[in-house]
Design goal:
Order of helices and strands: HEHEHHEEEHHHH
Strand order of the largest sheet: 3-2-1-5-4
Structural class: alpha/beta
Number of domains: 2
């Protein structure tokens, strides 16, 4: 069990009601049953969550969810594992239709927690807030892993087009043009020109 799975399992145990969450960042792939076996040497200390627009008030009022988060963080504190970053979608760089393309992450071991992640294209776009060296390395890792597993992945052209229509939070707007260009450039360096373009489990692009 990798560290993201440990966090998810612990949260699941503390939840009192069925709860859906959307994960992104490193945990998105570590919690994906298709990718996790290929990432045995990878770890993360936390899980980042996105709250879709329109669900903020529901989540804010969900006392059992916040109690479960607190209990999870207390239980795992000695292992330095946490759920610390919970972002409204307005604080993450994403394409406008990202919610229509989320990918379910089934895990029969979880009783109440239902996990989803953005498609690979949106995971890449979410790295365009800063586009720093770590973000570029994460993008290269995602695409290299896709290739190694024989899965279709977004091309540099498609990623550039997605950047052109991305919804960019105010905090990133000044940085975004150069950050997006750096991400697209690192994808081009990979020779990511395969015309097969989408996460096979995500709905067709629209």
């Amino acid at each position: 069990m990798n560290t993201a799975q440990v966090i998810a399992s612990t949260l699941d145990r503390h939840l009192q009601a069925p709860t859906e969450v959307i994960v992104f960042g490193s945990a998105a792939l570590l919690l994906d049953p298709e990718f996790a076996p290929q990432l045995s040497g990878r770890m993360t200390n936390d899980i980042d969550l996105i709250i879709p627009a329109g669900r903020e008030l529901i989540i804010d009022a969900d006392a059992q969810f916040w109690a479960a988060i607190e209990a999870t963080n207390r239980e795992l504190a000695d292992r330095a594992l946490y759920i610390t970053h919970i972002f409204p979608e307005q604080e993450v760089v994403l394409t406008p239709g990202w919610k229509q393309h989320v990918v379910p992450l089934p895990d029969p071991a979880l009783c109440r927690l239902r996990l989803f992640r953005p498609r690979i294209l949106d995971l890449i776009v979410s790295k365009m807030g800063r586009g720093d060296l770590q973000d570029q390395a994460d993008v290269r890792s995602m695409l290299t892993l896709q290739r190694a597993m024989g899965l279709p992945a977004p091309t540099a052209t498609e990623i550039a087009q997605a950047a052109g229509r991305a919804v960019v939070p105010e905090v990133y707007r000044e940085l975004f043009p150069k950050a997006a260009a750096r991400i697209v450039a690192c994808v081009r360096q990979l020779g990511q020109d395969d015309p097969r373009s989408r996460d096979p489990r995500a709905p067709a692009s629209g």
